[in-house]
């Protein structure tokens, strides 16, 4: 296989590929095998029809089309790798010449990742937030740790903010109790906002055995979004008890023996976090400054899709992975373009003869004008060598 690259503009190239016919042998064998499994010829067992009989009965053109559709993704991928290109999206492929027993020639136009010249950035200066950990920051971190080790103890009094109540719930919509609107033994911390709107006001002031009704919009279930009449019954009120901030707590909550060591470790962790945040902030601000100095060419496929895509994802996928998933797209687009020229022979019950093996220039022009309307994939940094062909072989 021979290939050449022509640069059309900074973001688009045209690959010209010449494939000796002998390199199609494996694909031709696979095509005969596939057609063999699909057709029935009197006098031969299924799958045992000789190649010459398939050519006579169903046309050599059908075999060539199947073989080329199978082989083109590999040839395209090999050409991309040989030229060390970074394709963006799907190429536009045109088979320029297919001579049975001689050669297969095709072109593929594709957007590529543009080469960007990075200017001198040694003079870029940015300001970032200082790394500063205050005593308040340490207190907050230790308090959060303390909250995680809180315990509860039942109390005989009315529920207050911060208490943990055990409740039973029943929701009605239009006077009917919902099938999924009953829940018993639910644990809820007053003020956490984890349940329905209005439940805090309903349960505050209730003791164990107390009951209240309120109206709220349901957040989930069969009647999500509807207003419901909710009855809540408090079965237990418990007070949250935080552990004392002492050496015993330090030993319970960490690997340290004293509360001073625990606080020192919390400070160090906070400093590391803020240093990381500072480095990230510096990177982002330098990048913003650098982008102001660089002119980045926008590939055509990007400009077509930018209005419909909020963001793009940078990814690199192997050619082999692509090849296994793109053939169905390839085939569907190839068939759509065959309407502008005589169709090659397809498997059918009556015999037919293969057609001429050369391709006319008028047919190529028709195919080329059609392929320009093919949809483009989203932009960004690729799915890589993707290759749904835009014209089929012309046997």
Automatic annotation (TrEMBL):
GO biological process, one term: 'de novo' cotranslational protein folding
SUPFAM superfamilies: FKBP-like, Triger factor/SurA peptide-binding domain-like, Trigger factor ribosome-binding domain
Enzyme class: isomerase
The UniProt record lists the keyword Chaperone: yes
Keyword Transmembrane set for record: no
Native organism: Streptomyces afghaniensis 772
Protein name: Trigger factor
GO molecular function, one term: protein folding chaperone
